[in-house]
Amino acid sequence: MRRVYLDHSATTPLDPLVLEAMAPYLSGVFGNASSIHSFGREARAALEESREHIATLLNARVDEVFFTSGGTEADNNALKGVARVNAGRGKKHIVVSAIEHHAVLHPAESLKAEGFKVDLVPVNEYGFVDPEAVEKAITPETCLISIMHANNEVGTIQPIRQIARVARDRGIVVHSDAVQSVGKITVDFKEIGVDLLSISAHKFYGPKGIGAIVIRRGTEIMPLIEGGAQESNRRAGTENVALAVGFARALALALDSLESEASRLEDLRTYLHKQLADRFEGVIFNEHPDFHLPHILSVSFDSSRRDVDGEALIMGMDLRGVAVTSGSACTSGSLQPSHVLLAMGRDVKTAKATIRFSMGRSTTKDDLDYAIDALGGVLNAMENQNVHLQ
Ligand SMILES: Cc1ncc(COP(=O)(O)O)c(C=O)c1O
């Protein structure tokens, strides 16, 4: 059976050139980057070269880039690290958007148990955060604002520069989860104006298990992981040189072809959009019409117009060899509607009847035609079954 991978927002395959760059550091060069002998210095040189490369590509300073195990750790560090610095100062209020990734929402939840108050800023029907709503949520106790750069489920890009300005004008630290945007659209750390940025390499054909937190010079933040002086005391643990080398190489490759690839993907997205709108009844497109990532298309079936079983939808696509996600989490065997789609005003049934297509370098128009036909097949089978049951 043909297999079509349309889940690049979940993860991407490792670029063979990235693997090639990493190979020497997985075998021959094995020294501990913190050792002072020649073996260690060799590893250290590769680590620091990777850091420099990443900093240049993101327009950050080299001493602002700190390696983490990925986006989840970077988000946890941003939230808990800034909150804990401010805990003793009476600044115990945090503002996040309602559509953040769980890597932000769950640490925010656990900070509540430490006495912090957390406000969730609402979004509109396209999952767009209004900077004025962020401004309104600020109190004299606010120590941190965390708003993602681009949403992983629907692809909407947030007005992060304006939000950063609102925060910085008031001396509040601002964090942005850029896990989905880095490598897909231009992300310039200085220009965006945030204090903290989260990145993950496996979203742009790099290895899994590495990412970074970019910390603007002078930002007060506590480490999440203690036990060593690595990463300038910001993140303890023996450095993973091979992954850092792979991260830098993957980012360089992604940025080399960023414009041409973004435009190719946007064309494919437009094609998919039109095909879905023409062929299927009751579809709602979830992204912001103007501000969206080029490679994500999320579509819901409006429950007031059509009865679509979300679980059967994804399973039916998988049986036909098409890998997509629903945007809903499967918890203890049942499908939970996505908090993102609920925050955007979708009802529970519509939110469950959602498919996220996320395209990547290997995606062709032919793949999309195959996926659209598969969707047609799944919906027909579902309808026939419904008729049969009536
Ligand atoms: C927006 C966003 N933040 C954070 C993460 C977590 O990143 P990682 O898988 O590197 O831990 C993801 C992964 O899907 C994501 O999409």
User: Number of folding domains?
Assistant: 2
Report the CATH C-level class of the largest domain: Alpha Beta
Helix content: 40-55%
- H/E series: EHHEHEHEHEHEHEEHHHEEHEEEHHEH
User: Which ligands accompany this protein?
Assistant: pyridoxal-5'-phosphate
Shape: globular
CATH architecture of the largest domain: 3-Layer(aba) Sandwich
CATH topology of the largest domain: Aspartate Aminotransferase, domain 2
Strand order of the largest sheet: 2-8-7-6-5-3-4
The CATH homologous superfamily of the largest domain is named Type I PLP-dependent aspartate aminotransferase-like (Major domain)
Look at the helices and sheets and give the structural class. Answer: alpha/beta
- Low-confidence blocks of residues: none
Entry summary:
The chain has helices at residues 16-26, 38-58, 71-86, 102-113, 131-137, 160-169, 189-192, 230-233, 241-256, 258-279, 310-319, 339-343, 348-352, 365-389; strands spanning 4-5, 65-68, 93-97, 117-121, 142-146, 173-177, 196-200, 211-215, 283-285, 296-301, 322-323, 329-331, 334-336, 354-358.
Characterize the structure shown:
By secondary structure, this protein is an alpha/beta fold. It folds into two domains: 16-256, Type I PLP-dependent aspartate aminotransferase-like (Major domain) (Aspartate Aminotransferase, domain 2, 3-Layer(aba) Sandwich), CATH 3.40.640; 258-389, Aspartate Aminotransferase, domain 1. It is 43% helix and 15% strand. The protein is built from 14 helices and 14 strands. It has helices spanning 16-26, 38-58, 71-86, 102-113, 131-137, 160-169, 189-192, 230-233, 241-256, 258-279, 310-319, 339-343, 348-352, 365-389, and strands spanning 4-5, 65-68, 93-97, 117-121, 142-146, 173-177, 196-200, 211-215, 283-285, 296-301, 322-323, 329-331, 334-336, 354-358. The strands form four sheets. It has a seven-stranded mixed sheet, sandwiched between helices. A three-stranded antiparallel sheet has the order 9-10-14. Strands 1-11 form a two-stranded parallel ribbon. Helix 5 packs parallel to helix 6. The longest helix has 25 residues, at 365-389. The two termini are 33 Å apart. The structure holds pyridoxal-5'-phosphate. Residues 70-72, 75, 101, 103, 148, 152, 177, 179-180, 200, 211 line the site of pyridoxal-5'-phosphate (PLP).
